[in-house]
Design brief:
Order of helices and strands: HHEE
Distance between the termini: 62 Å
Helix content: 25-40%
Mean pLDDT: 79
Radius of gyration: 19 Å
Number of strands: 2
Shape: elongated
Amino acid sequence: MDSKSYSRRGFIGKCAGVAMSIGVIGVILNSCSNANNDKGESTGFNSENCDDYSGLSASDLERRKMLNYVDISTVPGNHCENCANYLPPKPGEKCGGCALFKGPVRSTGYCTQYAPKSQNDG
């Protein structure tokens, strides 16, 4: 084959690479739009019951699962309350939220996207 010829394997490989890139860009854009959620805004769930996932779609639940969210952290010192993505509960509410996924989040929780608060985060 000359340099202008394309193999089927090369074509399929390039298509797979483009598809993965589009998927990664989608996840990044979704994370950016979720990160813009002001800490004073409603998190869109009943924060009286931190185990109530009834208002979440299947894709919302899948995102929580993909990020390996758990209610109680098994990593010493790393928990939602001291994570930069944590949205603290409003006064009188039991559970907070997260900038990366929807639904109730316990301050004692943890996910694989844990990011320690910087000193400027307060």
